[in-house]
Amino acid sequence: MLSKKIGIDLGTSTVLVYVKGEGIVLNEPSVVAVNEKGDRILAVGKEASEMLGRTPGNIQAIRPMRDGVIADFVVTEGMLHHFISKVCGRQRIFKPDIMICVPSGVTGVERRAVVEAAVQAGAKTAYLIDEPLAAAIGANMPISTPSGNAICDIGGGTSEIAVISLGGMVVSNSIRTGGNKFDDAIANHVKKRHNLMIGDRTAEEIKIAIGSAMPLHEELTMSVRGRDMVAGLPKNQVITSTEITEAIQDQLETIIQGIRVVLEETPPELSADIYDKGIVLSGGGAKLRNIDRYLTIQSQRYQDERALVDLTVSELQRDLQRVEDQTRIAQQDANNARQGAQQARSAAQQAQIQARQAQNQAQQAQGQAQQAQNQLQLAHGQAQQAQNEAQQANQRPHGAQDRADEANQQAQQAEDQAQQAHNLPGTN
Ligand SMILES: Nc1ncnc2c1ncn2[C@@H]1O[C@H](COP(=O)(O)OP(=O)(O)OP(=O)(O)O)[C@@H](O)[C@H]1O
Ligand SMILES: [Mg+2]
Question: Could you tell me the pTM of the whole model?
Answer without folding.
Answer: 0.71
